[in-house]
Amino acid sequence: MDARRLRLFDEAEAARGVVIALVAGLDAELLDRPTTNDGWSVKDTLAHLASIEARIRLMLETVLGGGTWVEDRAGLDAYNARCVSERRSWTLAATITELRETGQQTAVLFERLTPEVLDREWQHPIFGPMTIERTAGIVARHLRRHAEELRAALQT
Description:
The chain has helices at residues 3-23, 28-31, 42-64, 73-87, 92-111, 115-119, 132-136, 138-155, and strands at 121-124, 128-131. By secondary structure, the chain is mainly α. The chain has one domain: Four Helix Bundle (Hemerythrin (Met), subunit A) (Up-down Bundle). It has a two-stranded antiparallel sheet with strand order 1-2. Strand 1 (121-124) and strand 2 form a beta hairpin. It starts with a helix and ends with a helix.
């Protein structure tokens, strides 16, 4: 496997593992703790992480297929709110299962990212000029950022 693709995969897997380790086995009281995301609990943040990778993959698939990704911040916020709301009734185990499964689906997509593809540039509607490599790296960066939020919420 190409070193850059392997790094993307390893970083995402490691960050996902940190998130799962933080929340596995938590009781309802801890899952209900608020986070720094306005209106989101620990469980909501986990639900967000379990659902957002599908959106990141869709963005990557669209761009890889030659399409244009036009989603703006408002559309992303609406997607996040809907996905979190849909998962509020889920068990912790079901949400962790989704997070693991979405990671497996992301790994399959990462397998297709050749060095030439990783170097391809495109225009992200929020972040501006991006490469596919930087876009794929959103997965690990996003997981790490929210892991820190979860860690902070659970330490209080």
